[in-house]
């Protein structure tokens, strides 16, 4: 599975934490930037990631901004994107199980490294339920 990751300056540090953690687990993430802490615009970062996912250049995305909110809003404006802000363990599982989220989102200034890595692990380990009602609802999102 190919995973891409991107952040704005507010999520830069947490992005580095995630990349380092995944590398230790043998998962190489494609880093779409930003590549330093200079101020940048999260909508443009989200657009880049959405293009990656929609055009199947990656199977799954991870986005980080300061709060996780702006970059979620921006990503979810794209048809085919289901970006979920993972803010606790239950939501980390449900975002995959019920919503089959294709982008996991975190807040670099609002969530600790430990929280983010724990929720990411849960999200990655949880399968989509494939339930008929969940498939129907996901299809309705793009109609
Ligand atoms: C950047 O300062 C900050 O506004 C951004 O990272 C994010 O939190 C927006 O929702």
Number of strands: 5
Strand-residue proportion? 5-15%
CATH homologous superfamily classification: Sugar-phosphate isomerase, RpiB/LacA/LacB
Nearest-integer average pLDDT = 98
Structural class by sheet pairing and helices: alpha/beta
The spatial strand order of the largest sheet comes to: 2-1-3-5-4
Query: How large is the count of helical segments?
Result: 6
Low-pLDDT windows of residues: none
Shape: globular
* First-to-last CA distance: 27 Å
CATH topology assignment: Ribose 5-phosphate Isomerase B, Chain: A
Name the CATH class.
Alpha Beta
**What's the main sheet like?**
5 strands, parallel
- Count of individual domains: 1
User: Helices and strands, in N-to-C order?
Assistant: EHEHEHEHEHH
Q: Roughly what percent helix?
A: 40-55%
Bound molecules: D-ribose
Q: Please state the CA-atom Rg, rounded to the nearest Å.
A: 14 Å
Short description:
By secondary structure, this protein is of the alpha/beta class. The protein contains 6 helices and 5 strands; from the N terminus they run βαβαβαβαβαα.
Report on the structure:
It is a single chain. This protein has 143 residues and is an alpha/beta fold. The protein has a single domain, classed as Ribose 5-phosphate Isomerase B, Chain: A (3-Layer(aba) Sandwich). The chain contains six helices and five strands; from the N terminus they run βαβαβαβαβαα. It has a five-stranded parallel sheet, with helices on both faces. β1, α1 and β2 form a beta-alpha-beta unit. α2 crosses α3 and α4 packs parallel to α5. The radius of gyration is 14 Å and the shape is globular. The protein starts with a strand and ends with a helix. The site of D-ribose has 8 residues, from α3.
